[in-house]
Amino acid sequence: MDELTIQIIEQTFSVCKIENYDGINIEQPFVFTGSTDEEKSLVCPESMVPSKTIERDDGWRGFRIVGQLDFSLIGILSRISEILASNKIGIFAVSTYNTDYILVKKENYEKALDALKSAGYKVVSAGVFSEDTVGAEEALEYYLKGLVEFDKQNYLAAIELFELSNNKDEHFKTYERLYSCWLKLSDTKKAYACIEKAYNLNPQNDKTAFEYAETLVESGDTDHALEVLDDILQRNPSFKKAQVLQDKMKRI
Fold first, then answer.
1. Residue 9: which domain range?
2. 122-125 and 5-18 strand pairing
3. Second label for 36, Cα 20 to 30 Å away, from 55, 69, 152, 221?
């Protein structure tokens, strides 16, 4: 059943109270807004949080219920909430016309997925792996375990798991995680090689492209860095970090 399948979203979110929605690109994926007579709220990837933010709470990871849910269906979200509550995991839920999105704090993410798997839910990735091979399923398992080790600051263990994931099903997000690990270990040569691979696999991902632009700046390739930043800002004008870096480079 579709209602028993949940799909991982490969983003880290921020939940915000904001002054207004100026400069927010609502055409970007995973941007949720809510305006009442008391407040204006925004849930979006951390990289897209606007400067005029009254309050923000970072570090949320998310998943969604697969499929378009019929309005007559009862108890789907409450069932997930009960499972996670019994494991002492709080949630932040967002409902759209099609389905429900559930956010949990990143330190509880792996625990939440394990609890839902134990309750009979199938966990699939959202574009991180190809989904239709045994290797992709194994890659996802290694990838999720790598995230846990990374959050524990066990970077060498995380690298081993991410490399095992890539051996099963190579993907730009796994290379991006390897980049972060090698940076933490101060091995910039290996880090830069990983983010270049990530970018070449998916140059349309804004976060990956920005990290690649940063490495190009550090390597002295400013012309290429500006080209990458221009591409990012054409797709996503509200990407503040890219705008700041571009402005800084143009002043040099």
1. 2-125
2. parallel
3. 69
